[in-house]
Amino acid sequence: MEVKTGYLYHLKDDFFTKINDNSLMSNHGKGKMRPTYFTIKDKDILWFIPLSSKVDKYQQIVNKKVAKYGSCNTILIREIANQKSVILLQNAFPTLEKYISHVHMLNGAPYRVADNLKSEIEKNFKSLLQMKEKKGINFFFTDIDKIKA
Question: pLDDT tens for residues 104-135?
């Protein structure tokens, strides 16, 4: 499977069993797949950014961050596949292609986010990653260094 930036994917349970990290979003259960993930392919690393439908919950968090800091780039609320979705950059993590279950399909075709949203997500993610790598300021909930290792 060719994995591309900007497409949405689902992961196998094997990944979550192997990593065993409570900071990763939990399985929805009842036969449903884990959250849908926006994917960024960065050289040999696949970054997975979970999406959530809990807009009201995260809107409150975004509002508090904006009130305190003037902006919020760890959580984005945007329209994806004709519905409001929460893009949880703060919950991003790396993984390998072997843990991908399948690409997210919409109307029988792999779903790709709009180019302007793809660019916005990539820009914000790279900013968060640079803050961690160059300034030691970590906005990620998961231990991305441990998962990468």
Answer: 988 899 999 999 999 999 999 999 999 999 99
Query: What are the residue boundaries of the structural domains of the chain, listed by start?
Result: 8-148
DSSP state of 141: S
> Is 39 within 8 Å of 4 (Cβ atoms)?
yes
Sign of the alpha-carbon torsion through 98, 102, 104, 108: positive
Domain 8-148 annotated CATH 3.30.70.270 = no
User: Is pLDDT of 34 > 80?
Assistant: no
User: Which residue type, as a one-letter code, is found at position 138?
Assistant: N
Please classify residue 65 by burial: count the beta carbons closer than 10 Å to its beta carbon, then call 0-12 exposed, 13-18 middle and 19+ buried.
middle
CB atoms within 10 A of CB 94: 17
**CA 15, CA 58: separation in Å to the nearest integer?**
26
pLDDT digits (tens, 9 = 90+) for 51-66: 999 999 999 999 999 9
Residue 36 and residue 100: Cα distance in Å, rounded?
Answer: 11
Rounded to the nearest integer, the mean pLDDT of the chain is 89
